[in-house]
Here is the input.
Amino acid sequence: MKSFVNYPENSDFSIHNIPFGVAVFNKEYIACCTRIGDMVIDLATLYDYGFFDDIEGLDDNVFEAYTLNEFIELGKPVTNAVRERIQELLDEESKLARDEKTIEECFYNLDQVKMMMPVHVPNYTDFYSSIEHATNVGKMFRDPANALLPNWKHLPVGYHGRASSIVVSGSEIHRPKGQMKPADAEKPIFGPSKQLDFELEMAFIVNKNTEMGESISTAEAEDAIFGMVLFNDWSARDIQSWEYVPLGPFLGKNFGSSVSPWVVTLEALNPFRVSSPTQDPEVLDYLKFEGDKNFDINLEVYLQPENGDENLICKSNYKFMYWNMAQQLAHHTVNGCNVEVGDMYASGTISGKDENSFGSMLELTWRGQNPLKLNNRTERKFIEDNDTVIMRGYAEKNGVRVGFGEVSGKILPAN
Amino acid sequence: MKSFVNYPENSDFSIHNIPFGVAVFNKEYIACCTRIGDMVIDLATLYDYGFFDDIEGLDDNVFEAYTLNEFIELGKPVTNAVRERIQELLDEESKLARDEKTIEECFYNLDQVKMMMPVHVPNYTDFYSSIEHATNVGKMFRDPANALLPNWKHLPVGYHGRASSIVVSGSEIHRPKGQMKPADAEKPIFGPSKQLDFELEMAFIVNKNTEMGESISTAEAEDAIFGMVLFNDWSARDIQSWEYVPLGPFLGKNFGSSVSPWVVTLEALNPFRVSSPTQDPEVLDYLKFEGDKNFDINLEVYLQPENGDENLICKSNYKFMYWNMAQQLAHHTVNGCNVEVGDMYASGTISGKDENSFGSMLELTWRGQNPLKLNNRTERKFIEDNDTVIMRGYAEKNGVRVGFGEVSGKILPAN
Here is the structure.
């Protein structure tokens, strides 16, 4: 496949990708869109021009919308047909390639668009599915000899997060204030968090509504997953460590989470499937699965101080995940919990074995013991005011590249 | 105040109440409504007839809706004016009292209506604010000598719950299946929960959207609270105890929560304000508050086996709450977490000091050690299939009664 739109070889948005998002075009018009190279394509107008007319099940212009929810609810047969149609249209031999009027109407340069949240998120769950991350945290906060808790290898541990404060890449986040109890203090104190952290995660988005009492099996799960985004689960470690026993993380997390604007479909990620780490002990039947359910996605985290350059501080990979998405969704629904279109399910911090693959400052600096040295000659134990954290992710194989772009977020001083 | 609608002295829905809900009328027409005695009043048609014409800020017929969200977002000046107008209209001296046509069009008997969820719930948080409940749980599962965790008296502990599975009273709930690890088992097992429980709670509903980074102080909090409902936080104890360390309750809770259909406003509850239990140690500044922020609301739980009578198994009171709603909302937002219209914030199990005031089977039977004897000569350690749990709540003072009606839910066998 070769497109009439030119883009560099290392573009995340090759013709093999065709992700979906929502954009404000020229500050005035909002519609669902896709992207190739650095061109953003207005799908609502493309629909009006009849390019999707013969796609069965696509009866309304669901792209005339502020979110992708209506589109993704149509399910895989329709959303895959749309994605494949877009690939055909972008081919250098297509009729669109010579249709200057449509191109002028529907194709925008990146600088003409502002990306919005791709979906409305009715429910958000965060898992804890990297064995390296869970082990690191267990070593630091509990018992180095028994870092993993007894349940960890038997079920994908997760908890409900805050849906209201998930924002799109580029949104600024205020440093949270809160209660914390320094180790040497007798009583808790109140103030801006001094241990603000990121967590390198990915999240998947569900494309269907289920009824309460209904479950989704590991075999059915991938049909219910539209695609994935990069996810930064900002965390205030000092607030979190004082509050989280016994009911879990709360104000240490719910002040904000950032996501990348482009939803990359599971179909675009298919070429990058890999097997998962071996699960030992064997899991219960409802968590068993067949085939390669993991994905080889390179992940990077950059820290950029104000007026400074980007510093690459972490190189990890989604393939390290112990629990896969199919297991996460099967576990989440095995008790009859219903899911909704647009639900977001995050992976938990994705750490690898190497020290430079740890997906949080907490792990990278080992609780602040080994500060990171930045190229502007400053050091970081945690994230400082006006720092920007940028996460990037892409898969690459046999010359085919499919990526997520980035999720970026700047920390402003506390209000 | 005396209404032209007759109702018994012990009706929860006196002219002093005027709660709000959403009903299906005659199986075909949905609108927001209020209730007096056993009459349900269609507010959308009442609006069309001009009875609210002069209320400032009520420009659209927000009662023509499937949820109360649009109405409550108008804020207290409007929602209070509407409530007071309804009280005037229901007075025996009002013009409505002699307007037979309007009464015939807008007033329905209870058996002509089916109540729906009163609000769309964008986010749901569950607190843990009864000191008696937290102490009971701490004694059973941790250390009887140090039952309360160190953070408990310093902040209103809470966690995010699942919004998608909150259902209205009368909805049946399937017994959840899941992973659990019996004390004598070497490995976890999978199956229907054997320790299904209720939790007697109340929840408040927020009437505004805030921006990320914004906080709501204890002084501002009650202006942001539209009203309250009864809340049954169904809990599968065996699933919960295996999963909840370290990230909190998840599948042990998210299979379903039940709420009463009528939202009782804070204004209707004003006459029943009482002071809270003394908080010692003193709380941090952002949790301090002035005035009586607690409410004297009698709470009862009934267990009804299939084909059996109701058994009163718990008598508690909302006034036992250690942390009040203003503190809960101030804490929740002190880190800049944004709230949304319709958000539901539940209290946590409301237990008192007496053994018959404990708000869950876990506490009433002390983990199953002392089964409850029912009047059909059966016993219960936890909730069995086809049992119905009914919670009722009302406030009463100087002959004025304002109540919530009930939240009822039947447990069906596992799917």
